[in-house]
Amino acid sequence: MQKSTRTHLAAIAVVSVFSLLAACSKGEDKPAAPSSTPAPETAPAPAPESAPAPVPAPSSSSSSMDQAKDAAGQAMQHASDAAKSAGDAISEKAGEMKAGAAGAATAAGDKVKQGAVSADKAIQDKLSSGAFTPADNDKAK
User: What is the DSSP letter of 49?
Assistant: First the structure.
């Protein structure tokens, strides 16, 4: 139950981070503001008339947006897969630790039981042999 909850929370966190990143990058950057001081005027050099004017490049903003969305989707999928594999590894390690702790607790319980049995046997032996008398009990107090 916890494994799936942690995995879902990790995936939701990754998706929300990438959504925030995508929301922040949707707006296009504004060009730098022109400086408040005017540039010194110089006489423009005459351009040679034989050179053709440069052809403007076709606008590919929609294709670059699609590419960015695809890249973001792939990154989210990769991050989600990485989070899932990390969650699986953590869950597996936690299971191993739980099994080890349970074994150690069982061993400690067995040692306590053995100690109690040993102490009880020693008390019973001392009482049955007559080595311990009620007078000894008064001295101990």
Answer: T
Which of 32, 11, 129 is CA-nearest to residue 81? 11
Angle at 89 between CA 87 and CA 95, to 5 degrees: 100
**Tens place of pLDDT per residue across the chain (141 aa):** 567 788 888 888 888 888 877 777 655 555 555 555 555 555 555 555 554 555 455 445 567 778 888 888 888 888 888 888 888 888 888 888 888 888 889 999 999 999 999 999 988 888 888 765 666 566 655
- Kind plus residue range of the DSSP H or E element containing 114: helix 61-129
User: Can you say how many angstroms the Cα of residue 45 is from the centroid of all Cα atoms in its chain?
Assistant: 61
DSSP assigned state of 66: H
